[in-house]
Write a structure and sequence with these properties.
Layout lengths: L2 E3 L2 H13 L4 E6 L5 H13 L2 E6 L19 H10 L4 E3 L3 H4 L18 H4 L3 H16 L3 E5 L3 H13 L5 E5 L19 H6 L1 H15 L5 H13 L4 E10 L13 E9 L2 E8 L1
Parallel strand pairs: 1-4, 2-3, 2-5, 3-4, 5-6
Antiparallel strand pairs: 7-8, 8-9
Length: 280
């Protein structure tokens, strides 16, 4: 039976009891509306830990004023059932007031790695991400925490925060989970109507094109980006936010293809912003 806690102190008591029994704790932080991508992280946690904790919290501090906080998909009953089916040991499901009381003033920033990609498009987004994760890590005190590679910049930023602030845990990156047509699974896919859902395949198709060009020896990033841009722009419903090639270690732009690089894209399909990537 999956335990559910809305309270920080209660959650700490449960974790403390497990720790006293020398159980290892795996942690999967989510904003809910769970899908196969989340379930793959839960499965990985089960393989590597005695207990698995999932947090479900739509974090208000990582949304900008014109973003989709109020409309972000939520379905706790379905999430709870999926967690029970996946044998999750504890769901931490706090309110915004529990996480951010009225006299809350402290925030966490990771500089430099957040200047590019989604950090440029979404100011203060990563401040909100790092702040809530720092709080969750302090509450859950996991041995390992699991993140999907789809949010590649977030994964790099969180790893850096954990190193710099000496958190005693391991961050585990897990592969992108895709639909049969190639689109990366995301909670925001639920926003797409049938026509937009079909158009959204242009993201993975552009990444496939980039891989083919690289595998055929193309090294000029400007040529690869133009080829990707042309493919995406053929979709009238698509509007490119960015197409970037960066060094995977520092997330700064590169001029030519090299090992340990990341190709990351963000594209609006209608009003829905989707991201995808691959590692070179």
């Amino acid at each position: 039976m999956t335990k559910i806690s809305n309270n920080i102190n209660e959650t700490r008591e449960i974790i403390s009891k497990w720790k006293s029994q020398n159980f290892s704790i795996g942690f999967v932080p989510t904003m809910g509306y769970l899908h196969d991508g989340h379930l793959s992280l839960i499965k990985k946690s089960h393989m590597e830990n005695n207990k698995t904790v999932v947090s479900i919290f739509v974090n208000p501090t990582q949304f900008g004023p014109k973003e989709d906080l109020s409309t972000y998909p939520r379905d706790f009953d379905a999430d709870r059932q999926k967690c029970e089916d996946a044998l999750v040991d504890l769901i931490f499901f706090p309110t915004a007031e529990e996480m951010y009381p009225s006299d809350y003033y402290t925030y966490v920033n990771v500089n430099y790695l957040t200047n590019n990609l989604c950090g440029r498009s979404r100011p203060n987004h990563f401040q909100g991400v790092c702040t809530v994760l720092a709080k969750l890590f302090n509450i859950i005190k996991p041995n390992k925490a699991y993140f999907g590679q789809k949010d590649a910049q977030q994964l790099s930023v969180v790893k850096k925060m954990v190193r710099d602030l000496n958190f005693d845990l391991e961050i585990v990156g897990c592969p992108i989970i895709r639909e049969p047509d190639g689109i990366a699974i995301s909670s925001r896919n639920s926003y797409l109507n049938k026509e937009e859902r079909k158009a959204a395949t242009c993201l993975s198709q552009s990444l496939k094109l980039a891989k083919e060009l690289i595998n055929n020896g193309e090294c000029k990033i400007s040529f690869i980006k133009n080829s990707m841009s042309n493919l995406i722009s053929n979709q009238t419903l698509a509007k490119i936010d960015y197409i970037e090639f960066v060094d995977l270690n520092n997330l700064q732009p590169i001029d030519t293809i090299k090992k340990s690089s990341l190709c990351a894209i963000a594209v609006y399909i209608g009003n829905t912003r989707l991201i995808d990537n691959f590692i070179i």
